[in-house]
C-alpha cells in the first residue's frame, strides 16, 4: 500500500470515528412528555425527531380539543406559527433556483408598487432584507393588520406598509417583524403568477413529501384531524386562569399566512427536517433522491445575515444561553452547549411550535402544542436535544417554569403599581361621552368606529371582525377596552383634544405589560376620518 493510500485510509477512519453516533429517543420520553403535559394542563402535543437523516419518532400525545376524546396522532395538523417562515424562505429559494429572482435583487424591481415609508429604503430593500428583520421597522410593527384575523387582502396589507414609520435606520439592527414576510408572500405571487398558498403547496410541500400540511386556513378547518387552540385568558394577565378553547377562526388572517399560516403534522415536520438536514434533498421510500431546492440555496438560507441580542438568561436557564446569536433566512443561528444550533419558535394564539436542528450531528426535532404553556414545550425539546448530544440531564421544564412564573408575577406587580398611581376618583372625562363618538382612521391600520349611547362608549376595529367592545373610563380622557372577545388583549385608549375642544387624535397601548408584541397598539395614531359619512 502506498503512503498516499495509507494516509487516505487513515483520514477516512478518523472521519468515521468523528461521525455522531446514532442516539435513539430517550427511553422514558413518553412518561416525560405525559408528566409535563399533566403538570401544565397541556391538552395535546406532537413530536418529530430525525437522526442521521431519517425519522426516528413521529408521535402524538393528548387530545386535539379539551372536552372531546379524539387523540392527537402523528398526522394531526397544528398551526406552526413563525416556524413557517423557513417555508416561505424555501419557496423563494425555489424561485432563485428557477432563475426568476436573486436574493439581493431589489424588491421594487419585481414588485414596482412596493413602498416603504422612506423612499430611499424602498429603492434599497432586497429580497434578503425581507427575511432578516433589519428593515428599521419596530418590533411586531403592523401585526394588528392580521392578528386577530383580518378581512383585508394581502396586497392591501402590503400597500399599508408605506404608512408605518421606521423605529430605527435601515439595516442598523435587529427587530423581529411579521409584516415583511407577508410582503415576501406577495412577492412570490408577483414573480410566479401563483399565490403564496398555491406555490408553496406545489413547489415546496408536495416535493418535500409533506402531504398533511396545508397553507390555507380553510383547508385546516376542513381537516377533522386538527388541533384546536387553547389558552389561559381568565386572569389579570394572559397565562393564568383555566385552560379554555379559543375560536380557531380568529387567530390569524390569511393575509399574514407567509409569516406563520402553515399548518403541519409531526409526520410532515419529520419530512421537513429531512429536507433541511439534506440541504434541500431527501430520499424517498424507493431510495430515490428528491430535490426541493439546491444545496447552494440551503447554504444561503443558513448563513447569518444579522446579529441578534444575546442578553443574560435568568436563573436556571443561564446555562442554555447562547454566546453568539444571529438570524439567517427564516432561521436563528446560534450556539447551544458548544454545538451549532439552527432553530425557530412559532406561536399563533392558542398554539405553539418549536423546530431545531444540529446539522453537524444530522439531528432535528419539532414539537407542536395546542396551548400557550411554553415551559412544557421548550423544556421537553431541550431535554431531547441534550439526550441527542450527550449533555448532562437537566430539568429544563422546571427552569422554564421559574422564568414564566417570574414573568407573570412581574406583569401582575406592574398592573398593581399602575392602578395605585392613578389619582383618586380618576378625574372626569373632558367631554360628554357622545362627543367622543365618530369614525377615526390610522394611516396603516385603517378605520375604527367609536359609538356612544346609554351613557357608554363602544369601539370597533372595522377591518378585524369581532374586535369590538366597550370602553370603560379609567381617568381623565383615558378609557380601557373591555372586548366582547375576552381573549383579545385589553388596551388603554386615550383621546387628545384640540384647541377647538374636539377630539384631535386617539392613541392606544396594551394594558398588560407582558402582552404579546403582536398587539402593537402603541404604533396606532387615529385621527378623525374627514371622509366618513356623518
Sequence stretches where pLDDT stays below 50 over 5 or more residues:
7-22
Count every beta strand, where a strand is a DSSP E run of 2 or more residues. Answer: 22
CATH topology of the largest domain: Beta-lactamase
Number of domains: 2
CATH class call of the largest domain: Alpha Beta
Assign an overall shape: globular
* Assembly state of the chains shown: single chain
Q: Strands of the biggest beta sheet: in what spatial order?
A: 2-1-14-13-12-11-10-9
Q: Any guess at the CATH architecture of the largest domain?
A: 3-Layer(aba) Sandwich
Identify the CATH homologous superfamily of the largest domain: DD-peptidase/beta-lactamase superfamily
What is the makeup of the main sheet?
8 strands, antiparallel
Beta-strand share of residues: 15-25%
